[in-house]
Amino acid sequence: MSISSHEYKVITGRHCALLWDESFLWGLMARRALMEAGLPFDLIRSDDIRAGILPRYAMLFVPGGWASAKLRSLGETGQAEVRSFVANGGSYLGICGGAGLATQNDIGLLSVSRKSTRERVPSFSGPVRLSLFPHAIWENIASPVFSAWWPFQFHVAPKNEISVLAVYEEAQADAMSSDIKVSDGQISGWPELEKRYGIFLDPRRLKGEPAVVEGRFGPGKVILSLIHFDTPHDRNGAAVLRNLWRYLIPDSEWQINKSSPSKKNRLMADDCPECAKTLAEIESAVAGLIALGEHYSLWYWRNPWFLQWQRGIRGMEYSTLAVMIGDIAARLRLDSSVRYETGKSLPEFYGQSSLHEDLSTIRELLIPFVEKAQILLGREKEFLTTASLSPVKCSNEEIKCLRQELLGPSISHGGKFKELIDAVDRLLYKLIKVCR
After folding, report:
1. Which one, out of 114, 201, 361, 377, has a CA that is 20 to 30 A from the CA of 224?
2. Are residues 171 and 206 in contact, defined by beta-carbon separation less than 8 angstroms?
3. What is the tens place of the pLDDT at every residue in 87-128?
């Protein structure tokens, strides 16, 4: 049964800190998965790490997101705090972007690096079967099929002290490589598709590549995973997460709280008509943007967390925006998806005026973003009728300028989107922290 981390009773010892900053959708997914697995954790931010909070915990969990953005958020002081924490016996779990953060060219907890885009299969996502090597984290895993979401690939130098805990074995038929279903790619032929796309697509290239590794930084344990065990509603992933907690927090005893969710479903937004109106405008704008992309056949909902977008479209940004706004709306209306976390109105220290100010900020950033994004999607739709499209490069000057303004010059979050999603993230974090 899904419950909030707050309701866990930590019997003895310390538990886990989950770093929220620069995770966005990935942080939301990780939090939900940990609650579903019944695991104790606290949300923390980079400011907390710089202020010296880590010694209170046995483990730091860093979920997905752009490692470069996480580095900037931590700053030199925060990075040094993380290294000190692990060097003094703390455990580190990094998944995808959180794994990248710990590689030798970033914080440097393990002597592993990332393969370049031209050396790897850069756009693989979905279920994949692993080959597992004996380790406590695989206890009770009979069929090792898990989710990978656009992972980088490890380069593990020979003759070092890194242990490979799992390697890729076989992509499942309903996985995707770019916008091609694996079963379809096998029929069409990967060599011809790779020639057309200009990147490696064949998921068989992943076979035998490290997916989960372990090492030490001083006495501290470090596990880095390209597999998203923190995918919500994944029983195998939840089982591994529980095993990871037992392995990485061995001196703490904790129990899974199996209490039933609250049945309360009071409309918090109804306490503030202005808030309700602004929230409705935000939801309508986002829904219209997503519907337009669907109308243009640029994407469809693959699952509750991700759109499946055509090659060259920046679908992750739109997925992130839609899901995070949806979660904010659910919290303000206490929908069933978050009902187990609270049945109460906003506390006085986060009242109607503050909520309305935050929602208004989002609306002011969102409306012009959506208006220009709709133009961009229309131009991209037209362009795709005559040529292929790259996520960052395009010969069409109007598309290039709109992308630069809205999404930034690189594949990582930038432009007006970054300003918008930061505002969304700030409100969501407040709601998570005060409504519990």
Report:
1. 201
2. yes
3. 999 999 999 999 999 999 999 999 999 999 899 999 999 999
Which of 1, 86, 4 lies closest to 40, judged by CA? 4
Q: Is 147 helix (H, G, I), strand (E, B) or coil?
A: strand
Residue 77 above 50 pLDDT? yes
Structural domain count of the chain: 2
Residues 203 and 310 in one domain: no
233 and 185 in a common domain: yes
Give me the phi and psi of 85, to 5 degrees please: -60, -50
Q: Is residue 194 part of a domain?
A: yes
Rounded Cα gap, residues 205 and 13, in angstroms: 43
pLDDT band at residue 41 under the 50/70/90 scheme: very high
Q: What is the CA radius of gyration of the chain?
A: 22
Residue from 88, 82, 48, 85 nearest 67 by CA? 82
Q: What is the dihedral of CA 346, 351, 355, 357, to 10 degrees?
A: 180
CB atoms within 10 A of CB 329: 17
> Is 261 inside a domain boundary?
no
Question: From CA 429, how far away is CA 78, in angstroms rounded?
Answer: 20
Range of the domain at 193: 5-254
